Prior knowledge:
By secondary structure, the chain is mostly helical.
Amino acid sequence: xxxxxxxxxDDMQKLHKKWLKHQAFMAELAQNKEWLDKIEREGQHLIQExxxxxxxxxxxxxxxxxxxxxxxxxxxxxxxxxxxANKADLLAQSYRSLDQRLGQMEGQxxxxxxxxxxxxxxxxxxxxxxxxYQMEEWYQEVxxxxxxxxxxxxxTRAKETVAEQQAAVEARMVxxxxxxxxRRRLLLASKEVHQVGRDLEDEMLWVQERLPLAxxxxxxxxxxxxxxxxxxxxxxxxxxxGHLSRVEEVLERAAIFASVRxxxxxxxxxxxxxxxxxxxLLWAETExxxxxxxxxxxAQQYYFDTAEVEAWLSEQELHMMxxxxxxxxxSTLQLLKKHLVLEQTIEDYAETIxxxxxxxxxxxxxxxxxxxxxxxxxxxxxxxxxxxxxxEVDELEQWIAQREVVASSPELxxxxxxxxxxxxxxxxxxSETGSVGQERVTAxxxxxxxxxxxxxxxxxxxxxxxxxxxxxxAELLELIETRAQMLAASHQLHxxxxxCREVLSQIEDKHRRLPEVRICQSSTANTSTLQRLLHGFxxxxxxxxxxxxxxxxxxxxxxxxxxxxxxxAIACREHQVMQCWKELLTSCEECRLQITTETDKxxxxxxxxxxxxxxxxxxCQINTGEKPRDVSSVEVLMNYHQSxxxxxxARSQSVMECIDMGKMLLAARNPAKLDQVVAKQHELSVKWxxxxxxxxQLLEVHQFAQEAVVAEAWLTAQxxxxxxxxxxxxxxEVEQLIRRHExxxxxxxxxxxxxxxxxxxxxxxxxxxxxSKQPATPLLGRKVFLAPQDAPPAPPPSPPRLPLSxxxxxxxxxxxxxxxxxxxxxxxxxxxRLYGGPxxxxxxxxxxxxxxxxxLECQMSPEQLIQARKNELPQEVWREHTERRERxxxxxxxxxxxxxxxxxxxxxxxxxxxRLERQESSEHDTGKEQSDRREVSHLxxxxxxxxxxxDRPRARDRPKPxxxxxxxETGETTRRSRSAPAxxxxxxxxxxxxxxxxxxxxxxxxxxESLKKSTNRSWVNLYCILHKGGxxxxxxxxxxxxxxxxxxxxxxxxxxxxxxxxxxxxKNVFTLKTKxxxxxxxxxxxxxxxxxxxxAMELDGN
Length: 1102
């Protein structure tokens, strides 16, 4: 718009440049009209797709249209303004251009060329006619320029200039009128002369074409052939009679032009005489041939009649030779009658024979050609053939001598174009000479052989002529071959020099383009652009490789042929080309190394940025974990944390590649990103180890709490049997009580190892003990319900020795202890059940406090003790515990109804495995416990109780090898602790988040694919993994690295999941509709799995 509104027209020297610039701007504006139409179409399409944006889109389109109209009007006004300002200059320029064209025409008219043949004269006349048309157009152009000049403002200098140029142009046009008329007159006269010469040539050709027919010696060998020849000759006579007027007209015109004395008139005179002679000869030969054919017709007619008479006589002779005499009188009489008729016929035919005899005598008297002496005819024919052969041999030898002059020329050309032209002309000469000469030599040899075979009297002379002609022809062919080889060698030499110049120019052009590639390298940051530029440049150079190799081969061949100065010139030019080529390759290699280094740098920066972003996301996932409430939730967190570790290990190779690349690029002074990547990797590894250790500690604490609950439940169940006062009223009852008591003792012996493991210190307790520098007390043996006056002062907190930051370690330890102690207090079994009542005792660092506590608890009933514990605990903890217990009871009932025998067997095997591990760890530490045991406690039934040392590590505290999380099906229960009962239900599932992780087997059927019915709608049992907003399908749980049929992960964003009530063939079926129109049917094994997958998919979809 600014260019269209530029109104500075004061500088007259720049008016033309401004006009050209404005013309280019108008062309660009016309090209951008398509862009405006495209925007209009896209706006209308957007209005149709999104009607809610219609007002805004229409407003924008109207603004664009108005702006475009303003731009066009402004551009037109600007063009008119520049045209008015530049009108005088344009007029002067138009007059100058017209004056130049008139000068060119004047120069063309000054060169007088009347043409050497009719075609050239016709071209000259056509060219002259075009000049006249141009003059008429220039007359009109001068009139238009005069009209425009009258509208020029009265500016002194411009007006005078235009007037001067106008006068000069008009004067020059007037001067050109006479030369044009004179040129037309000369060309018309020359055309008449050449036309007469052409007509004479055409007529002579016409006569020569028909002269062989008139001079033909074929007279026919039968009556029919003679008749045909007579018809042809009569036709020829009629054609000559019809063409007579044309020949007389041409001869008359030729006689008129021949009367003028000029070189052209002499040629016309010669043509006139030749045509007259040929026409007279043709006419005479036609008449002579007619006479000969008439005589031959009479002879052939006589021969034909004679042949008929002979045939009739032969037939009658056969009748006369019949010796049949008849068998009886009637037959004899019949034969006699036939013989009389035959005699009468013979007598009648005698007249015909007499006529033939008379005709024969007449032919002999007329002197018929067949009756003349053949010997004289043969002698004359041989002499004629000898003269004809002599003429042919002389003409052929003369033609061969002319060709030898051309073939022996020493001219080899001055440069490549000259030698190419010479070689092209010589190729045409050699082709023409070979074809025409071979035909002529073959014709002469054939004529010689025929004469010799006929027995010509001059056969020896004819043979000498044949040898001389063949020898001359062989020498000519040898000269042509030698000349062709010399021109080929010269062409190869000059082509080598021309190719060298061309290759050098291309190499210099590539040298000039190489800085452009380097400039693009410094101005762009896109590696693909740099690689594309370099690849294109290298492809261009690759095209030169073949040319350079061909130059080397050509130079090697030429050095073997030439010597001296030419050999030195060849070697010098080859060295020059190879030197420039090596310099170009070196420069290209340097540029490629620079671009490769820059590409590696940019790729490293991008890879480092991706790795850092990925590490940040992993760190965020590590730091944003929820607080676990039980063992199953801790195990879920540990599995998820282990999956993060697997992901980290999977990406470790790419991180190491990034680090190696950064080390390679350290020379480029770019270590910042490398340090950042290494630091972030170290931070990720340390953070994962710390979080993993914290999760292991949380798992150990929650396992302890769960085992304590199980132990309390067992003690509660066995309490009525121990506290019972029933002794039995009879022998059977006493024996039954004894058997029941024996069973209780066996069960107590089984549970002894569990209580021993509960007395061992956890990792958190050990850390606390190290912080307080005091002997650690197991959670189960610690006194919790102390009187306010008996409570020991709390030790000052000291930073734990966890591999975390001090602040993080305190927060994790405090949260874990608060949660665990709340559950331990609620789930702690009675002390008298563990230590054998008031009679048994344990060594405690605070014996008095312990004794008072035991006495206080012994005086209280179980109901009072539970109520006291409720009162001492915070209400929130108690409420949470109550809700958790009710939820677990409900889950146990549900799972016991739904789970089959297989799930119970799996849980029992898992529980037995964990129990064996704990027993092995307990047996391993039994010796140390017995040596340090100060006192043996007994249960109420008299069984010894094992006490554990505070410093002895438990089996769960030992380092365990990392195990890969086992994939679980939807209906499979979560992994229980080592002491969990078999009838315990599955843990409550965690509420799914945006990165929920769930997996299991589902039957899948693709019903609709991209809004069309799927071709394969069969049910397939697949292992499904729901993770981070995506749903993956696998063949089974062992092959989760490879997707089923290499299918991509199904994105659940904007997906709709619903239970299909209309599908009646199967139960527990739900549908999943994706955003691209596809629809899947999933069949779960039970309702719980159905609800769980449906809820997780809906959350991930939202």
